[in-house]
SDR family NAD(P)-dependent oxidoreductase (Myxococcus landrumensis), 271 residues
Amino acid sequence: MTDLILTGASRGIGFALARTLAKSREYRLILVARDRARLEALAASIQQEGGQAVVVPGDLSTLSGARALGQRLAELVTPGATLVHNAGIWPTRRELTVDGLEMGFAVNHAAPLEMQQALLDAKRLRRILLVSAGLLVKGRFDAARTPTGEDFSSIRTYCDTKLGFALAMRDVATAHPELDVLVLHPGVVRTDLGARTGPMGWLLSLVKRRWEAPEVCAERLSRILAKERWSTPGQARWWVEEVEQPWPPVTEDAATQRAVREVHERVRAMG
């Protein structure tokens, strides 16, 4: 039995994936989210069904919180673990964290990388799966403006931050050829991500009725996790659902790649 760290486990795709993986008995699930009560209820249900689950509450809205979470996880998990980056938000207004970062950039990009670093330093990971989004093709990452949300958009900021994290994970794969790294568009899934109030929220709720349920997506993710290998050493792969695809052209732009690296170095230097 291997350890599988699952962020964003308290709702949506993460919740459904935890329930699905518990049935396989192949993993000890390390459940990560901010809501301790929801995590504990989920862990109890998994254990009642014969699975194993450990609750690790954590906050990805601050760099210090992310780093502390990474240290706790590094002390808990055994070598050969799988990390599933699933936590994410779709902000509808600009909000800055205590670090002065735009909230979407912090949660979707900077903090997960900082959390992950402790696990890499401790050599705990064998595989990393990033649950990303096909909308990264609409991203336009700006090193000067995106981290602080000066280019904030209730639509495009989500795309920008997903693009940034995907590019950062490509660099992680290059730096750590021992890892198996996959960046995935999981499908169009009916969750509360990006929920809004008013007429736009009502319209979005109608559209989402046609999208697939989180449980359907979770079954797909469990099949992907069951594959022996996703990538070649030193290279992250991009999949759309269960099919490998060429990386989108926006991810091959050299200026965007440099911008993401520049920002990552700045974030690493922040106390």
Q: What stands out?
A: The beta strands are 2-7, 27-33, 52-57, 81-85, 125-131, 180-185, 237-240, 243-245. The chain has one domain: 2-269. The chain is about 45% helix and 15% strand. The first strand starts at residue 2 and ends at 7.
